[in-house]
Write a structure and sequence with these properties.
ATP-binding; 3 domains; 31% helix; cell shape; six-stranded mixed beta sheet; eleven-stranded mixed beta sheet; alpha/beta; Protein-Tyrosine Phosphatase, Chain A; UDP-N-acetylmuramoyl-L-alanine:D-glutamate ligase; 486 residues; peptidoglycan synthesis; Udp-n-acetylmuramoylalanyl-d-glutamate--2,6- Diaminopimelate Ligase, Chain: A, domain 1; binds ligand UAG; cell wall biogenesis/degradation; Mur_ligase_cen; binds adenosine-5'-triphosphate
Length: 486
């Protein structure tokens, strides 16, 4: 494809010919190849502009930059924002795949992954093949392609959308993280539907957002980039999130003003099963059972139904879809012998932890045990808050390691203890996560609910830049095997 065609729709100035055939779009000089265009991104650690000449020496024929760059032997195209340019160029390079599918974007602090799986489950029941891009990876049919980020770089997003369209998907659901929106990873196309789940303080500090306002403003970007916005009006932030929206708006929630409403929530439980039932009001009027526990599952299900309504699904598709949905690492039950319940959950901040613990408390466990740690090189406030929440809500907190990254695990645990000490909650520190899980299982009593919080779907533990394999399902199976219980 010609460079000038890839640049269509962008404002730019070029210092050479744009009548150039472009073989690929590259934003890492180490991957540059003959005939490619190199896009210089300003990152958290490096400035891609510094590597432009290196990319040209490896064969790049054009360099897309947002400030002056020293390059000889290639056309230089100056744009205002290279991340936005990468998105526009990628959409063109992959033939605007968003026009060949209906793309749904989800934003919100919590519930994106779960809701995306619910949408997929309902749509696939209706015969609409649905691709997913999100925290668990990119899902196309039975394949799960692992990705580094919840919302990958725009080039990867467009490439995946192309693949989905070519493989017969009628819909794609993208988790649009606030950082993904900020960094234009989902720019360059219009979403059919944008969904807002909820908003609470998170992702502030470190390499993430500068302030709560910036975090909220990034989420709001989605509603200037979709045809229809669907929002949870029980969350007071919905007005701020939709400020300046350019789309039509629809609402869901328990509030009587919501267009799609839930009522009559009832918890469902029997040995080895926790779920929730509720009734729909508004455009649909029937009851549904969701095979994931708790009040927040009602919100996620309601959001999924509100989206799927626009795909013409039937009552049966909704019932069956929500009945069959399973999300790896989201309140995921792990089979154990004995009369206690063991769950793996991705809750890795205070809001999710509060939600999951309050939710599980409603199922009246003998004891509620929460095993958790906290990530290194992320906001420290998260640790204090998690300690405080677990100390307040769990009968026993088992404090251990999560992804310590480049920090010392004991420093992270000390921060968690600061929060725990604000409560009179009982706790024990076992820094080795496998040992901590074993402790929980060996000391489980009848009727206990044990939640292994934080790792969710992840199958690794990140320590000092190395990802060591750790899948909590396997850890549990190994413990049972060692103890002759499997
Ligand atoms: C802080 C941040 O957002 N970092 C992301 C970013 O990497 P970076 O900014 O560090 O890149 P960099 O190393 O500074 O390099 C800048 C540029 O120079 C280029 N370069 C660099 C070296 C070289 O020799 N040649 C070269 O060309 C790089 O390829 C890059 O284009 O670009 C990478 C590729 O797109 C991302 O994988 C990476 O996400 C990291 C892993 C990350 O942790 N991001 C978090 C903050 C994040 O994005 N989180 C959100 C929200 C998650 C949630 O909701 O829970 C997400 O969507 O994942
Ligand atoms: N609607 C919700 N409101 C509050 N908490 C929720 C909600 N849905 C799920 N949770 C809790 O948050 C955890 C993460 O849920 P999920 O992965 O669906 O959210 P997410 O928005 O994708 O989160 P993240 O950005 O952290 O990946 C769940 O395991 C559950 O404990």
């Amino acid at each position: 494809m010609l460079l000038k065609d890839l640049l269509e729709g962008l404002e730019y100035q070029s210092s050479g010919s744009t009548e150039l055939e472009i073989s690929d779009l590259i934003y890492d000089s180490r991957k540059a190849k003959p005939g490619c265009a190199f896009i210089c991104l300003c990152g958290a650690n490096a400035d891609g502009h510094r590597y432009a000449q290196q990319a040209v020496e490896a064969g790049a024929v054009a360099v897309i930059a947002q400030h002056g760059v020293e390059v000889s032997g290639a056309t230089v195209v100056l744009v205002e924002d290279t991340r936005y340019a990468l998105a526009v160029l990628s959409a063109a390079y992959f033939g605007h795949p968003a026009k060949d599918l209906r793309v749904v974007g989800l934003t919100g602090t919590k519930g994106k992954t779960t809701t995306s799986y619910m949408i997929r489950s309902i749509l696939e029941d209706a015969g609409i093949k649905t691709g997913l891009i999100g925290t668990i990876g990119t899902v196309i049919g039975d394949r799960v392609i692992k990705t580094e980020n919840t919302t990958p770089e725009s080039y990867e997003v467009q490439k995946s959308l192309r693949r989905m369209a070519d493989e017969g998907c009628g819909a794609a659901v993208i988790e649009a993280s606030s950082i993904g929106l900020r960094d234009h990873r989902v720019s360059g196309f219009t979403f059919s539907i944008g969904l807002f789940t909820n908003f609470s303080p998170d992702h502030i500090g470190g390499n993430e957002h500068k302030s709560l306002e910036e975090y909220r403003a990034c989420k709001a970007m989605l509603f200037r980039q979709c045809e229809l916005g669907i929002v949870n009006i029980d969350d007071e932030n919905w007005k701020a999130i939709t400020e300046g929206h350019t789309c039509q708006l629809e609402t869901y929630g328990f509030h009587p003003d919501a267009q799609l409403r839930a009522k009559g929530e009832r918890l469902l439980s029997c040995p080895g099963y926790l779920g929730v039932h509720f009734e729909l009001e508004g455009p649909y009027q029937f009851g549904v059972d969701v095979d994931i526990p708790g009040h927040f599952s009602v919100y996620n299900a309601l959001a999924a139904i509100a989206v799927c309504r626009h795909f013409g699904v039937t009552e049966e598709n909704i019932r069956r879809g929500l009945n069959a949905v399973k999300v790896k690492g989201r309140v995921e039950p792990v089979k154990v012998p004995g009369n206690y319940t063991l769950l793996i959950d991705y809750a890795h901040n205070a809001v999710s932890m509060e939600n999951i613990l309050e939710t599980l408390r409603e199922y009246h466990p003998n004891r509620l045990i929460c095993l958790f740690g906290a990530g290194g090189n992320r906001a420290r406030s998260r640790r204090y808050e998690m300690g405080e929440v677990s100390g307040r809500l769990a009968d026993l907190s088992v404090v251990t390691a999560d992804n310590s990254r480049f920090e010392d695990v004991m420093d992270i645990i000390s921060d968690i203890e600061v929060g725990l000490h604000k409560t009179d909650g009982k706790y024990i520190v076992i820094p080795d996560r496998k040992e901590a899980i074993k402790y929980c299982m060996d000391h489980a009593q009848e009727g206990d609910i044990i939640v292994l919080a934080g790792k969710g779907h992840e199958d690794y533990q990140e320590i000092k830049g190395v990802k060591y394999h750790l899948d909590e399902r396997e850890v549990v199976a190994d413990i049972l095997k060692e103890e002759g219980l499997s």
